[in-house]
Write a structure and sequence with these properties.
Shape: flat
Order of helices and strands: HHHHH
Number of helices: 5
Helix content: 55-70%
Strand content: under 5%
Distance between the termini: 27 Å
Number of strands: 0
Structural class: mainly alpha
Length: about 80
């Protein structure tokens, strides 16, 4: 969950705190680092994790997908 939160860009979508173009640039910058974050997760995480942690991570990921797929008008 820690590694997934590093790649969470939902705040850039939920909040209109900067011009759209600036938020998109920030999202691109964050997600361009995804391969390094994923590599670190693979290197540092155990092959098996406690079931509750896995289930919670899956629920959070599904919630993010649901939220992002239902945004009216995309990221505007």
């Amino acid at each position: 969950m820690t590694y997934a939160s590093v790649l969470d860009v939902s705040i850039y979508i939920k909040r209109n705190f900067a011009p759209f173009e600036d938020r998109v640039r920030s999202i691109i910058a964050i997600l361009s680092g995804a391969p390094k974050v994923i590599a670190a997760a693979r290197a540092n995480l155990a092959d098996s994790l406690p079931r509750p942690q896995i289930e919670t991570a899956i629920e959070e990921a599904n919630g993010s997908v649901d939220f992002l797929s239902k945004r009216p008008g995309g990221m505007h």
